[in-house]
Write a structure and sequence with these properties.
It catalyses: prephenate + H(+) = 3-phenylpyruvate + CO2 + H2O. InterPro entries: ACT-like_dom_sf (IPR045865), ACT_dom (IPR002912), Chor_mutase/pphenate_deHydtase (IPR008242), Preph_deHydtase (IPR001086). With 282 residues, the chain is of the alpha/beta class. The protein folds into three domains: 94 residues, Periplasmic binding protein-like II (D-Maltodextrin-Binding Protein, domain 2, 3-Layer(aba) Sandwich); 74 residues, Periplasmic binding protein-like II (D-Maltodextrin-Binding Protein, domain 2); 82 residues, Alpha-Beta Plaits. 28% of the residues lie in helices and 33% in strands. It has nine helices and 15 strands. Helix 8 runs antiparallel to helix 9. The N terminus is likely disordered.
């Protein structure tokens, strides 16, 4: 486990806060209660805390099984100086929390991911309510606790922390709703024999088949891809960076050969990290 690497030192962990967020719960599940936690207001702040070595590790949300990738995390990975050294999964059950009753709710606070995961329920039961983005579900609970006629989509934990009533339970659109979180650090993790690696690259968009040529190198070396994403490069219009996750560790021989081959087709290539595979198939 990642925290065993720092057993002789005090371990500190930054996470997207405030207390009670799903990221906080994932961090607790990964590191337990014997480390020092530092809640951060934004995902960017979590990255900065690790990059500037204010904390040993950071925990950020990466993707949800219902609503897909957390684009804020993807965008921050483009400029990150950290390494992804681990992952964690958390089953996410959303609840409608408020100080009042459901009939008086005119505003709902939550993280954009939570709104996306509860879209059907909101459209059915609170279609006229104003949905307002918050930096996290726990921040949403804080806001709902300070205002009348406001509610939050958040966790049961936040109901207890912020003195809110649970108006409706389990309002997510799909059962088995899970979020994957990345553990950030400053030193790469070693191979476990069951790992995944996340790669970032861009290609010459003017060259036909450039992306196809890149992806074919994985097939040539018998490497299974598990996720592909893209985001604007912010370098020029209609230019994109690609995220590719695959089975294997960056130090595996077939992965090294694939990375050497893919370098011939890429304009830029960054290994964001290799980490032990924690996904369990339901």
């Amino acid at each position: 486990m990642v925290h065993q690497q720092m057993a002789s030192q005090e371990i500190t962990v930054a996470y997207l806060g405030p207390a009670g967020s799903y990221t906080h719960q994932a961090a607790l599940g990964k590191f337990g209660n014997s480390v020092t936690y530092h809640p951060q207001a934004t995902i960017d702040d979590v990255f900065k805390f690790v990059e500037e070595k204010h904390t040993t590790y950071g925990v950020v949300p990466f993707e949800n099984s219902t609503f897909g990738s957390v684009v804020t995390t993807l965008d921050r990975l483009v400029s990150s100086k950290t390494q992804i050294i681990g992952e964690a999964y958390l089953e996410v059950n959303h609840n409608l929390l408020a100080k009042s009753n459901i009939k008086s709710v005119k505003r709902i606070y939550s993280h954009p991911q939570a709104f996306g995961q509860c879209r059907k329920w909101i459209n059915t039961h609170l279609k006229g309510a104003q949905c307002i983005d918050a930096s996290s579900t726990s921040r949403a609970a804080e806001l709902a606790a300070s205002e009348s006629a406001s509610a939050a989509i958040s966790s049961i934990v936040c109901a207890e922390l912020y003195g809110l009533n649970v108006l409706e339970k389990d309002i997510q659109d799909l059962r088995g709703n899970k979020t994957r979180f990345f553990i950030l650090g400053n030193s790469p993790s070693g191979s476990t024999g069951d790992d995944r690696t996340l790669l970032l690259f861009t290609v010459d968009h003017r060259k036909p088949g450039a992306l196809c040529d890149c992806l074919k190198t994985f097939k040539d070396h018998n490497i299974n891809l598990t996720k592909i994403d893209s985001r604007p490069s912010l370098q020029r219009q209609w230019n994109y960076v690609f995220f590719v996750e695959f089975e294997g560790h960056k130090d595996d021989s077939n992965v090294r050969m694939s990375l050497n081959d893919i370098g011939e087709y890429c304009l830029g290539l960054t290994v964001l990290g290799s980490y032990s595979n924690k996904r369990t198939e339901d």
